[in-house]
């Protein structure tokens, strides 16, 4: 891909002021100030209490190290031991990546903008009638997390990636230029994603697709996250979906005490999976979660997303690690790793170390949880939701912006709320 000269100019406006910049092409790192990755292909950043590693492929997070309540440093991100493994075409679960240019699912792989219908590449739910797929997931078979980004800036505690997505790629209209910046500080991982539609109106919705296990698979009693507590205080509603997880247009109530009620009080992820309501909750023949909860904060009046409270809190009673997620986004997808089957090994360093021989060093079903900050899924096919200003972008208008902070702490009380 040839990088447009606008990349450097836009970068000068969007990158942190202290960052070094490069005009190198996608997948390259030409700035002399950017050190080469380590022997496993990882770029490391660190600050007090936190270390994280990333790769250009999908602008993916590959490791996140933090100490648990016993002082043991644990890697709480699911992934592979080296960068090359992420590019395996036979195994591509979007580990730690930035899905784009449109995250989650697009019904029938089509959408309309200003009366014109666009057809994008399908890649999920293959049928005899649709051998390539009935819908598009995470931008298509060559979405952003199948491509190498450019490393344009790196400091001790921050790294910035960029990508230029050309007009027509995967069927999407117009060129998009995007920057993804990750920063760590004070046991916090900050994310900022900016994307600019330079030539035509186009859908843009991004996210971070990291898989979490707050025990780092070190728990002697379980290697699942079913005992992790989840709390989403603003999420009394969710997007209704059909049996292949395509939104129906309905906005559903998460009634108090129901399987999808994580708003009224903290609750273990596995607490309700034996209820009949949990069967099919995440699609056909699926028990668990792969759902998009809405984040309803506006009823409380003006708010600052950085200080008004987390949209989600996840806590492990075993490790004591608590994750509070703050974001400017209005939806939150949770996937409880229902499809994992033990075929992924855990990493060889800073994971596992359990002395229970019955626990295999692999990612079992429910062995992780994906926590995606984003906007309402497939809203480009539901104009009645009135999300156009948050999902359709064009030249001369405001850029797409996603911001989030993942704040880590130790909570030994077992309540799942800050102590």
Automatic annotation (TrEMBL):
<keyword id="KW-0119">Carbohydrate metabolism</keyword>
<comment type="similarity">
    <text>Belongs to the aldose epimerase family.</text>
</comment>
<keyword id="KW-0413">Isomerase</keyword>
<dbReference type="GO" id="GO:0006006">
    <property type="term" value="P:glucose metabolic process"/>
</dbReference>
<protein>
    <recommendedName>
        <fullName>Aldose 1-epimerase</fullName>
    </recommendedName>
</protein>
<dbReference type="GO" id="GO:0030246">
    <property type="term" value="F:carbohydrate binding"/>
</dbReference>
<dbReference type="InterPro" id="IPR011013">
    <property type="entry name" value="Gal_mutarotase_sf_dom"/>
</dbReference>
<dbReference type="InterPro" id="IPR014718">
    <property type="entry name" value="GH-type_carb-bd"/>
</dbReference>
<dbReference type="InterPro" id="IPR047215">
    <property type="entry name" value="Galactose_mutarotase-like"/>
</dbReference>
<dbReference type="InterPro" id="IPR008183">
    <property type="entry name" value="Aldose_1/G6P_1-epimerase"/>
</dbReference>
<feature type="signal peptide">
    <location>
        <begin position="1"/>
        <end position="20"/>
    </location>
</feature>
<dbReference type="Pfam" id="PF01263">
    <property type="entry name" value="Aldose_epim"/>
</dbReference>
<dbReference type="GO" id="GO:0033499">
    <property type="term" value="P:galactose catabolic process via UDP-galactose, Leloir pathway"/>
</dbReference>
<keyword id="KW-0732">Signal</keyword>
<dbReference type="GO" id="GO:0004034">
    <property type="term" value="F:aldose 1-epimerase activity"/>
</dbReference>
């Amino acid at each position: 891909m040839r990088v447009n000269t606008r990349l450097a100019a836009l970068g000068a406006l969007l990158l942190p002021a202290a960052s070094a910049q490069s005009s190198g092409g996608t997948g390259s790192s030409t700035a002399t100030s950017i050190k080469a990755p380590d022997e496993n292909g990882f770029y490391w950043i660190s600050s007090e209490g936190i270390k994280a590693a990333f790769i250009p492929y999908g602008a993916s997070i590959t490791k996140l190290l933090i100490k648990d309540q016993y002082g043991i440093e644990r890697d709480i991100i699911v992934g592979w031991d080296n960068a090359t493994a992420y590019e395996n075409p036979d195994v591509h679960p979007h580990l730690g990546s930035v899905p784009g240019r449109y995250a989650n699912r697009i019904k029938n792989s089509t959408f309309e903008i200003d009366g014109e219908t666009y057809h994008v590449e399908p890649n999920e739910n293959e049928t005899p009638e649709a051998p390539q797929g009935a819908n598009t997931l995470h931008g298509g078979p060559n979405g952003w997390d199948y491509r190498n980004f450019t490393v344009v800036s790196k400091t001790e505690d921050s790294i910035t990636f960029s990508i230029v997505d050309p007009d027509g790629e995967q069927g999407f209209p117009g060129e998009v230029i995007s920057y993804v910046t990750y920063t760590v500080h004070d046991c916090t991982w900050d994310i900022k994603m900016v994307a600019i539609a330079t030539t035509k109106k186009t859908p843009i919705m991004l996210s971070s697709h990291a898989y979490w296990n707050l025990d780092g698979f070190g728990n002697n009693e379980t290697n699942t996250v079913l005992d992790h507590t989840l709390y989403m205080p603003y999420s009394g509603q969710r997007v209704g979906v059909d049996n292949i997880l395509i939104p129906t247009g309905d906005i559903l109530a998460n009634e108090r005490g129901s399987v999808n009620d994580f708003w009224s009080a903290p609750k273990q992820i596995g607490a309700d999976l034996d209820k009949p309501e949990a069967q099919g909750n995440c699609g056909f023949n699926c028990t668990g979660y792969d759902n998009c909860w809405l984040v309803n904060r506006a009823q409380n009046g003006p708010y600052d997303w950085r200080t008004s409270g987390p949209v989600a809190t996840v806590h492990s009673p075993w490790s004591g690690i608590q994750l509070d997620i703050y974001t400017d986004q209005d939806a939150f997808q949770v996937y409880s790793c229902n499809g994992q089957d033990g075929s992924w090994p855990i990493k060889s360093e800073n994971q596992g170390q359990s002395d229970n021989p019955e626990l295999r060093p692999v990612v079992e079903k429910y062995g992780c949880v994906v926590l995606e900050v984003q906007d309402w899924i497939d809203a480009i096919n539901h104009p009645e939701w009135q999300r156009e200003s948050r999902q359709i972008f064009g030249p001369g208008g405001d850029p797409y912006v996603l911001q989030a902070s993942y704040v880590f702490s130790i909570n030994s009380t077992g309540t799942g709320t800050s102590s």
